[in-house]
């Protein structure tokens, strides 16, 4: 029982640390939607102006959905959306800048997203199928 409890605790910590890093990064975009840096980044990637707003609003909604309790289906789609977003960011940076250090950020966040996703499902499995351990 003690090992299962420790494993469950480490999975919870892993889930919350990775999820909060992603959510806080995405939610911080709310403060910079209309900043000069955001405008320059959009122009640098040759994206239309409206796209910056659409992606920023999506990041805010997704960041909230990652950390609040919602149905598993909505949580799944939130992970899918961020996965598509990080892959698209990687492709956009590679297409515009080539193979530079700018590719590192989407890769790091994709790795964090995968770790968060796997941890989320491990926690869901524990809720659905609790381990019953008898006395020693």
From TrEMBL:
It comes from the Bacteria. One of its GO terms (cellular component) is membrane. It is found in: Membrane. InterPro entries: DoxX. It is a multi-pass membrane protein. The chain crosses the membrane at residues 12-33, 53-70, 77-96, 102-120. This is DoxX-like family protein.
């Amino acid at each position: 029982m003690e090992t299962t409890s420790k494993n469950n605790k480490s999975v919870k910590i892993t889930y919350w640390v990775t999820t909060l890093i992603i959510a806080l990064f995405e939610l911080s975009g709310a403060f910079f939607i209309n900043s000069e840096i955001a405008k320059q980044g959009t122009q640098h990637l040759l994206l239309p102006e409206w796209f910056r707003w659409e992606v920023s609003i999506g990041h805010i909604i997704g960041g909230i959905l990652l950390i609040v309790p919602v149905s598993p289906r909505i949580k799944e789609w939130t992970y899918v959306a961020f996965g598509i977003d990080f892959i698209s960011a990687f492709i956009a940076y590679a297409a515009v800048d080539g193979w530079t250090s700018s590719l590192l950020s989407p890769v790091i966040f994709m790795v964090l997203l995968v770790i968060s996703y796997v941890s989320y499902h491990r926690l869901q499995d524990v809720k659905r199928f609790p381990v019953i351990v008898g006395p020693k």
